[in-house]
From TrEMBL:
<dbReference type="InterPro" id="IPR011006">
    <property type="entry name" value="CheY-like_superfamily"/>
</dbReference>
<keyword id="KW-0597">Phosphoprotein</keyword>
<protein>
    <submittedName>
        <fullName>Response regulator</fullName>
    </submittedName>
</protein>
<dbReference type="InterPro" id="IPR050595">
    <property type="entry name" value="Bact_response_regulator"/>
</dbReference>
Amino acid sequence: MAATANERELWIVGLGDRPERGEIVARYLAAAGYGTRIAEPHELASGRPLGVVLDLSPHSTDGWGILLAMKHDPATRDIPVLPVFLSERGRVGGVFPVSGFFTLPVDSDYLAERLAVFGLTEDVDDYDLQALIISRKGEERVARTVETLGFEVVNAYTGKEGMALATTGRQYLIFCTLMLPDMSAFELVDRYRLYPQTRNIPFFVLVKDGMKQGERGAMSRQIEHLVRKKELSQEEFLSYLRRRA
Protein backbone atom coordinates (compact mmCIF):
# COMPACT_ATOMS: atom_id res chain seq x y z
CA MET A 1 0.00 0.00 0.00
CA ALA A 2 1.83 3.25 -0.13
CA ALA A 3 2.58 6.78 0.87
CA THR A 4 2.14 8.86 3.98
CA ALA A 5 0.06 7.17 6.65
CA ASN A 6 -2.29 10.04 7.48
CA GLU A 7 -2.68 11.42 3.96
CA ARG A 8 -5.82 9.52 3.00
CA GLU A 9 -7.78 6.55 4.24
CA LEU A 10 -7.27 2.90 3.47
CA TRP A 11 -10.62 1.36 2.64
CA ILE A 12 -11.60 -2.19 3.56
CA VAL A 13 -13.81 -3.61 0.82
CA GLY A 14 -15.62 -6.85 0.07
CA LEU A 15 -17.38 -7.35 3.40
CA GLY A 16 -20.93 -6.81 2.13
CA ASP A 17 -23.53 -6.92 4.88
CA ARG A 18 -21.02 -8.14 7.48
CA PRO A 19 -18.89 -5.05 8.16
CA GLU A 20 -17.88 -6.42 11.56
CA ARG A 21 -15.51 -8.78 9.72
CA GLY A 22 -13.28 -5.76 9.03
CA GLU A 23 -12.78 -4.75 12.65
CA ILE A 24 -9.51 -6.63 13.20
CA VAL A 25 -7.91 -5.25 10.01
CA ALA A 26 -9.09 -1.74 10.90
CA ARG A 27 -7.53 -2.07 14.35
CA TYR A 28 -4.23 -3.26 12.88
CA LEU A 29 -4.14 -0.37 10.41
CA ALA A 30 -5.03 2.18 13.06
CA ALA A 31 -2.06 1.01 15.13
CA ALA A 32 0.19 2.04 12.23
CA GLY A 33 -1.44 5.47 12.00
CA TYR A 34 -3.68 4.80 9.01
CA GLY A 35 -7.16 6.18 8.81
CA THR A 36 -9.59 3.45 7.74
CA ARG A 37 -13.17 2.92 6.77
CA ILE A 38 -15.26 -0.01 5.62
CA ALA A 39 -16.59 0.94 2.20
CA GLU A 40 -18.81 -0.27 -0.61
CA PRO A 41 -17.41 -0.77 -4.13
CA HIS A 42 -19.62 1.92 -5.66
CA GLU A 43 -17.92 4.54 -3.44
CA LEU A 44 -14.46 3.97 -4.88
CA ALA A 45 -14.63 6.13 -8.00
CA SER A 46 -15.64 9.28 -6.16
CA GLY A 47 -13.79 8.62 -2.90
CA ARG A 48 -10.28 7.95 -4.21
CA PRO A 49 -8.83 6.20 -1.14
CA LEU A 50 -5.11 5.84 -0.55
CA GLY A 51 -5.59 2.14 -1.24
CA VAL A 52 -7.96 -0.77 -0.81
CA VAL A 53 -7.63 -3.79 1.46
CA LEU A 54 -9.75 -6.33 -0.42
CA ASP A 55 -11.05 -9.59 1.01
CA LEU A 56 -10.77 -12.33 -1.62
CA SER A 57 -11.76 -15.22 0.65
CA PRO A 58 -14.85 -17.40 0.14
CA HIS A 59 -16.43 -15.33 2.94
CA SER A 60 -16.17 -12.08 0.96
CA THR A 61 -18.99 -10.53 -1.02
CA ASP A 62 -17.70 -11.17 -4.56
CA GLY A 63 -14.16 -9.96 -3.87
CA TRP A 64 -12.96 -11.12 -7.28
CA GLY A 65 -15.83 -9.35 -9.00
CA ILE A 66 -14.91 -6.16 -7.15
CA LEU A 67 -11.28 -6.49 -8.23
CA LEU A 68 -12.23 -7.00 -11.88
CA ALA A 69 -14.63 -4.06 -11.82
CA MET A 70 -11.95 -1.83 -10.26
CA LYS A 71 -9.30 -2.75 -12.81
CA HIS A 72 -11.71 -2.43 -15.74
CA ASP A 73 -12.84 1.08 -14.80
CA PRO A 74 -10.40 3.94 -15.67
CA ALA A 75 -11.71 5.84 -12.63
CA THR A 76 -10.54 3.15 -10.18
CA ARG A 77 -7.92 0.99 -11.89
CA ASP A 78 -4.98 2.97 -10.49
CA ILE A 79 -6.06 2.50 -6.85
CA PRO A 80 -3.55 0.15 -5.13
CA VAL A 81 -5.09 -3.11 -3.91
CA LEU A 82 -3.77 -5.29 -1.09
CA PRO A 83 -5.53 -8.68 -1.36
CA VAL A 84 -6.17 -10.44 1.96
CA PHE A 85 -7.89 -13.54 3.24
CA LEU A 86 -10.27 -12.85 6.11
CA SER A 87 -11.87 -15.71 8.01
CA GLU A 88 -15.58 -15.83 8.70
CA ARG A 89 -14.89 -13.92 11.92
CA GLY A 90 -12.53 -11.45 10.28
CA ARG A 91 -9.21 -12.93 11.37
CA VAL A 92 -6.39 -12.28 8.92
CA GLY A 93 -5.37 -15.61 7.48
CA GLY A 94 -3.15 -14.37 4.68
CA VAL A 95 -1.86 -11.34 2.77
CA PHE A 96 -0.83 -11.42 -0.90
CA PRO A 97 1.43 -8.42 -1.59
CA VAL A 98 1.53 -8.24 -5.38
CA SER A 99 2.72 -5.07 -7.11
CA GLY A 100 -0.45 -4.68 -9.14
CA PHE A 101 -3.08 -6.24 -11.41
CA PHE A 102 -3.70 -5.94 -15.15
CA THR A 103 -6.73 -7.36 -16.92
CA LEU A 104 -6.42 -9.51 -20.04
CA PRO A 105 -6.36 -8.77 -22.90
CA VAL A 106 -3.90 -6.16 -21.67
CA ASP A 107 -4.15 -2.52 -22.71
CA SER A 108 -0.62 -1.97 -24.05
CA ASP A 109 -0.62 1.80 -23.63
CA TYR A 110 -1.88 1.53 -20.07
CA LEU A 111 0.65 -1.16 -19.20
CA ALA A 112 3.51 0.99 -20.50
CA GLU A 113 2.17 4.02 -18.66
CA ARG A 114 1.89 2.21 -15.31
CA LEU A 115 5.38 0.72 -15.54
CA ALA A 116 6.70 4.22 -16.16
CA VAL A 117 4.75 5.57 -13.17
CA PHE A 118 6.25 2.83 -11.00
CA GLY A 119 9.72 3.89 -12.17
CA LEU A 120 10.42 0.51 -13.74
CA THR A 121 11.46 1.79 -17.16
CA GLU A 122 14.08 4.31 -16.06
CA ASP A 123 17.10 1.99 -16.37
CA VAL A 124 16.30 0.07 -19.55
CA ASP A 125 18.63 2.19 -21.67
CA ASP A 126 21.58 1.65 -19.34
CA TYR A 127 21.23 -2.03 -18.42
CA ASP A 128 20.15 -5.32 -20.00
CA LEU A 129 16.95 -5.94 -18.05
CA GLN A 130 14.74 -9.00 -18.25
CA ALA A 131 10.99 -9.33 -17.82
CA LEU A 132 9.75 -12.79 -16.88
CA ILE A 133 6.28 -13.71 -18.17
CA ILE A 134 4.75 -16.79 -16.54
CA SER A 135 1.72 -18.10 -18.38
CA ARG A 136 0.46 -21.43 -19.63
CA LYS A 137 0.00 -20.08 -23.16
CA GLY A 138 2.33 -17.10 -23.16
CA GLU A 139 1.04 -13.55 -23.39
CA GLU A 140 2.12 -12.11 -26.74
CA ARG A 141 0.68 -8.64 -26.21
CA VAL A 142 2.37 -8.29 -22.83
CA ALA A 143 5.63 -9.55 -24.33
CA ARG A 144 5.48 -7.13 -27.26
CA THR A 145 4.73 -4.20 -24.97
CA VAL A 146 7.61 -4.79 -22.59
CA GLU A 147 9.96 -5.49 -25.50
CA THR A 148 9.14 -2.09 -27.00
CA LEU A 149 10.08 -0.59 -23.62
CA GLY A 150 13.54 -2.16 -23.88
CA PHE A 151 13.20 -5.35 -21.82
CA GLU A 152 14.36 -8.79 -22.85
CA VAL A 153 11.46 -11.20 -22.42
CA VAL A 154 11.90 -14.60 -20.79
CA ASN A 155 8.94 -17.00 -20.80
CA ALA A 156 7.95 -19.65 -18.28
CA TYR A 157 4.89 -21.88 -18.61
CA THR A 158 4.47 -23.28 -15.10
CA GLY A 159 4.98 -21.98 -11.59
CA LYS A 160 7.89 -24.37 -11.01
CA GLU A 161 9.61 -23.14 -14.14
CA GLY A 162 8.99 -19.54 -13.11
CA MET A 163 10.45 -20.30 -9.71
CA ALA A 164 13.58 -21.85 -11.20
CA LEU A 165 14.18 -19.00 -13.64
CA ALA A 166 13.64 -16.26 -11.06
CA THR A 167 15.91 -17.80 -8.44
CA THR A 168 18.76 -18.46 -10.87
CA GLY A 169 18.34 -15.61 -13.37
CA ARG A 170 18.35 -11.83 -13.34
CA GLN A 171 14.71 -10.87 -13.77
CA TYR A 172 13.86 -7.21 -13.16
CA LEU A 173 10.08 -7.63 -13.11
CA ILE A 174 7.59 -10.48 -13.37
CA PHE A 175 4.15 -10.88 -14.95
CA CYS A 176 2.11 -13.96 -14.03
CA THR A 177 -1.37 -15.11 -15.01
CA LEU A 178 -3.65 -15.77 -12.08
CA MET A 179 -3.86 -19.52 -12.61
CA LEU A 180 -1.00 -21.69 -13.82
CA PRO A 181 -1.10 -25.45 -14.54
CA ASP A 182 0.55 -26.27 -11.21
CA MET A 183 -0.27 -23.38 -8.84
CA SER A 184 -1.84 -19.95 -8.54
CA ALA A 185 0.00 -16.64 -8.85
CA PHE A 186 -0.58 -16.04 -5.14
CA GLU A 187 1.11 -19.31 -4.23
CA LEU A 188 4.04 -18.40 -6.46
CA VAL A 189 4.49 -14.94 -4.92
CA ASP A 190 4.35 -16.62 -1.51
CA ARG A 191 7.27 -18.83 -2.55
CA TYR A 192 9.24 -15.91 -3.97
CA ARG A 193 9.09 -14.24 -0.57
CA LEU A 194 11.21 -17.07 0.85
CA TYR A 195 14.29 -16.11 -1.18
CA PRO A 196 16.28 -12.86 -0.79
CA GLN A 197 16.95 -12.64 -4.54
CA THR A 198 13.26 -12.80 -5.50
CA ARG A 199 11.24 -11.33 -2.63
CA ASN A 200 11.53 -7.74 -3.89
CA ILE A 201 11.07 -8.29 -7.63
CA PRO A 202 7.97 -6.36 -8.79
CA PHE A 203 5.29 -9.01 -9.39
CA PHE A 204 2.21 -8.20 -11.48
CA VAL A 205 -0.80 -10.50 -11.78
CA LEU A 206 -2.66 -10.84 -15.09
CA VAL A 207 -6.37 -11.49 -14.58
CA LYS A 208 -8.81 -12.58 -17.28
CA ASP A 209 -11.38 -9.81 -17.67
CA GLY A 210 -14.22 -12.25 -18.32
CA MET A 211 -13.66 -14.36 -15.20
CA LYS A 212 -16.87 -16.32 -14.60
CA GLN A 213 -18.60 -16.67 -11.24
CA GLY A 214 -17.55 -20.31 -10.93
CA GLU A 215 -13.94 -19.39 -11.63
CA ARG A 216 -14.07 -16.67 -8.97
CA GLY A 217 -15.33 -19.16 -6.40
CA ALA A 218 -12.69 -21.70 -7.35
CA MET A 219 -9.96 -19.07 -7.00
CA SER A 220 -11.21 -18.09 -3.54
CA ARG A 221 -11.09 -21.73 -2.47
CA GLN A 222 -7.58 -22.03 -3.94
CA ILE A 223 -6.46 -19.13 -1.76
CA GLU A 224 -7.99 -20.84 1.25
CA HIS A 225 -5.46 -23.65 0.86
CA LEU A 226 -2.59 -21.15 1.14
CA VAL A 227 -3.53 -19.39 4.34
CA ARG A 228 -2.04 -20.20 7.67
CA LYS A 229 -4.07 -22.06 10.26
CA LYS A 230 -3.55 -19.34 12.84
CA GLU A 231 -4.28 -15.68 12.26
CA LEU A 232 -1.55 -13.17 11.44
CA SER A 233 -0.55 -10.96 14.33
CA GLN A 234 -0.71 -7.19 14.07
CA GLU A 235 3.06 -7.02 13.60
CA GLU A 236 3.01 -9.67 10.86
CA PHE A 237 0.18 -7.94 9.01
CA LEU A 238 1.74 -4.47 9.18
CA SER A 239 5.08 -5.79 7.89
CA TYR A 240 3.46 -6.12 4.46
CA LEU A 241 2.54 -2.44 4.43
CA ARG A 242 5.99 -1.37 5.53
CA ARG A 243 7.54 -3.23 2.64
CA ARG A 244 5.15 -1.56 0.21
CA ALA A 245 5.51 1.94 1.66
